[in-house]
Amino acid sequence: MKPAPLRPPAPPLLVRAEPSLAAAPHDGVAQLATVRDAIVACEDCPRLRRYCARIAREKKAAHRDDTYWGRPVPGFGDPDARLLLVGLAPAAHGANRTGRIFTGDGSGDFLMSALHAAGFANIETSRRADDGLELRDAYILAAARCAPPDNKPTPGEIARCRRHLTAEIAALPRVQVIVALGKIGHDATLAYVAETHGVRPRPRPAFGHGSEARLGGGLPILIGCYHPSRQNTNTGKLTPPMMRRVFLRARALLASAGGTLTR
Fold first, then answer.
1. Nearest by Cα to 262 from 205, 192, 188, 183
2. Each residue of 147-162: pLDDT tens digit?
3. Is residue 260 assigned to a domain?
4. Burial 125-142 (b: 16+ CB within 10 A, else e)
5. Which range of residues forms the domain containing residue 210?
């Protein structure tokens, strides 16, 4: 009987950018390590766990020699981030393979190119967990932490995963702007602020590319952005200039010192 293949080593917990001179010390690094452990060990959604494990066994022909991560995927970035990105879920042969969100597929490269142009990433690509990518003043997480079949987690799976989103954001006390990548990320953010902070803006902010909502209650500004899925980028629904403008707008809002997320 052959021994089971070893899982790939966990990707780096985060990349810490140079802190702001005005930044006060906080315990976010330790909190993020604890949250990461809880995410990676999560078994709350049996359907998703079965799917991720199957994909990790069967693999894609182009990655047949890779050892897939195959576990829930934690967030990645700067613990002192003022910009938070909320995506949908890991890609089956992207983050589910590499273990780092938005890494190992075209969506990751598309996103990182825009973040690099706005000064939030040190390189334009996101290929492997050990590729030297650093996020500066930015942190990326997802509404669901396991790759879902057809890229469609159920509402119940997203709701069960919200505890991880809540815990991870709690370890990021300097967030001032949130960019929601797609409607699911937008809805997950609004559900989070309602559940955790009791804030339910009226009228409810509508999702749209470049939409902006001031949530009130000391919460961050919420910006909508089309998700950099191949469906959007290959059809021209989302172009590189469109995505760059979103992050340049986020940079401008940070420069004007928006609100800070209350913990």
1. 192
2. 999 999 999 999 999 9
3. no
4. bbbbbeeebbbbbbbbbb
5. 28-255
